Each structure stands twice: as C-alpha cells, then as structure tokens.
Amino acid sequence: MRHVHHAVGRGSPGHGRPDTWTLLSWVGAHTERVQLAGNVHNIPLRPPAVLARSAASLDRLTNGRMALGLGTGGF
To answer: In 3-state terms, what secondary structure has residue 10?
Structure first.
C-alpha cells in the first residue's frame, strides 16, 4: 500500500477519516523508517503556532522523519 489514506475510508473529516496529525502519529509509532508527511497543509485552516508545534513534536518523537509541506491555496 503506497498511501495510507486510501485504506481508511472516505468522507468528511470526523466521519471515517482520521485527522492528519493523529494518523501520522499512529504511523510513526508503528514504523521505524517511513518518512512522514501529510501532503500540503493549508495554513489558513490551522493557527500557524499550533501547526508548527504539532510538526515539531512529531518530528522530535519520530527522530526526524517528519516532512512538512505548507501552502496558502484555496479549496
């Protein structure tokens, strides 16, 4: 399986699809070599300080395996 999101179901957030940071934390806890990334995060949807802290925490907990993509794009 190349992408985890294909396996967890589709639908609106909270209805069959886990939050990106929850899913990345789970994958990081169950793997040792997988590079972790949540595609491109839309900055206006999450306070920048919260996003930065989440990314830094996950990166620290997974020994530097977090890759962060940022964007300001629309929907």
So the answer is: coil
